[in-house]
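Design a sequence for this backbone.
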């Protein structure tokens, strides 16, 4: 089963902020401990159950809560599996610069990070002395998620939960935190309650070319005849220092605008560049000397892949099917140059057209 994670932002200060911080630091210390032991092990288990059996005791010695200890173990196992997928040396991986804590079990209710009516979240915290206390967070619930949260409670939908700290500091002697409560739910549940349109009677095909500042859509019919093109811009997100969270929000709005446009212009199937060809990064909580962030081409391909994945995730909300094509030759080839001249399109719209054309030919 596939899952999606929704984020609910919050700001909190004072004693509650201090307890959230202590829990996050203990969780990270436990994760460091498990990562060190795993990198030193000659052989590693092949399942979550095996990893927990081997490393739970060591994690629990740092953060004395079974669900959080298991969350640290599962996180390290995820890093290990990502390294295997990407061909990265697991022993060369270090933890990234993050603060968060999670319970890995999908359950209802999530015992340690518990969703309550009205969008409140009750969180089990651990002090540096090991004292346990429940605190209440009141995250901001986007309008689009209000019904979804109600349905989680109403249908008793199992989910996993995480608290991620985005920033912290001291103001007038008081500790403050900004962060997110993240809930992971089944994708089928998400689509059932978030669908914008229940039926799509279109018969056309769309090709999408993704770049760092825009998404280009080209619409063709079954014979390959070009029907329409449109560009959805997000130039502001490439400005130096533009907040990452704001950038994702702006891109998300453009993606929804593109899908809305495609739906109302009769697109039934949308063809995207295969992100496996562009290259994806799954080491969400780790960094590696083999794939450093200073590599511009790597950053661009990862950024583009994240937008493609966002489009693929949101398209079913509009009743639009998604398929992938190999992008090789769709942006720099003789075929591309000839299509630009014939159709009088810019290079990115032409790439979108060729992606659509290749998708129709493949189908």
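Sequence:
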């Amino acid at each position: 089963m596939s899952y999606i994670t929704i984020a609910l932002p919050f700001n909190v200060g004072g004693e509650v902020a201090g307890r959230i911080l202590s829990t996050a630091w203990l969780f990270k210390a436990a994760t460091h401990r498990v990562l060190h032991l795993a990198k030193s092990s000659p052989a590693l288990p092949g399942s979550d159950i095996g990893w927990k059996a081997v490393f739970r005791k060591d994690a629990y010695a740092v953060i004395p809560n079974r669900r959080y200890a298991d969350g640290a173990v599962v996180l390290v196992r995820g890093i290990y599996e990502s390294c295997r997928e990407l061909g990265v040396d697991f022993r060369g991986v270090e933890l990234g610069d993050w603060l968060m804590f999670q319970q890995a079990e999908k359950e209802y209710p999530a015992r340690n990070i518990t969703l309550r009516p009205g969008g409140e979240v009750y969180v089990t915290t651990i002090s540096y002395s090991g004292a346990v206390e429940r605190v209440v967070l009141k995250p901001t619930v986007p309008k689009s998620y209000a019904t979804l949260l109600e349905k989680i409670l109403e249908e008793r939908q199992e989910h996993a939960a995480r608290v991620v700290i985005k920033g912290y500091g001291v103001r007038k002697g008081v500790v403050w935190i900004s962060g997110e409560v993240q809930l992971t739910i089944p994708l089928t549940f998400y689509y059932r309650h978030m669908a914008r349109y229940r039926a799509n009677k279109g018969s056309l095909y769309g090709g999408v070319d993704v770049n760092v500042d825009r998404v280009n859509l080209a619409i063709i019919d079954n014979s390959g005849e070009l029907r329409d093109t449109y560009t959805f811009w997000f130039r502001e997100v490439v400005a130096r220092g533009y907040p990452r969270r704001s950038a994702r929000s702006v891109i998300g709005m453009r993606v929804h605008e593109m899908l809305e446009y495609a739906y109302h212009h009769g697109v039934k199937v949308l063809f995207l560049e295969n992100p496996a060809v562009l290259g994806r990064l799954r080491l969400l909580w780790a960094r590696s000397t083999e794939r450093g962030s200073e590599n511009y081409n790597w950053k661009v391909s990862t950024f583009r892949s994240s937008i493609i994945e966002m489009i693929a995730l949101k398209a079913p909300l509009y009743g639009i099917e998604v398929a992938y094509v190999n992008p090789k030759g769709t942006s720099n080839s003789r075929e591309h140059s000839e299509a630009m001249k014939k159709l009088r399109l810019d290079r990115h719209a032409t790439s979108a057209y060729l992606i659509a054309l290749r998708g129709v030919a493949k189908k």
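Residues 14-40 form the longest helix (27 residues).
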